[in-house]
Amino acid sequence: MKYRIRIILMEFLSSIIHRYRYYKYRLYGYDIKKSTIMERDLILDKVYPAGIHIGENTLVARGAVLLCHEHVKRDKFNTRMPLIKETFIGNNCFIGINALILPGIKIGNEVVVGSGSVVTKDVPSNTIVAGNPARIIKTKIKMNNKAELIDS
Fold first, then answer.
1. Residues 6+ apart with CB under 8 A from 77
2. Can 69 be counted among the known catalytic residues?
3. Tens of pLDDT along 53-86?
């Protein structure tokens, strides 16, 4: 009984924390949906927050890095500015711990990005990618609204 109360309390507190993070990131200008779960210690590009787009029911795990600009490449119309590219993550995705998503990447719906992966190319929907650089491990997967794999 003692553990059940603890779990209920943890679920209640985590819902408050997730709501706080959602409003905080929206206030900064990030395009995220209310059902997105953002864990702690994320590094989201601060140069152009509106360039980060995260879909519904997506879980972004601790330590993930999402970028939408490159300092090495410059804007051809203003060489003082970094090159800015929009980064998209679809619905019902899971972005693993310490994953790195580079600028301009489009991740489809129902995608799992493995922990520590470096995503350098667009990822089609219904796939699992992992590695450095991230490669497709499995296709034709299904996920539910909690970003969990459904046995198929």
1. none
2. no
3. 999 999 999 999 999 988 777 767 777 778 889 9
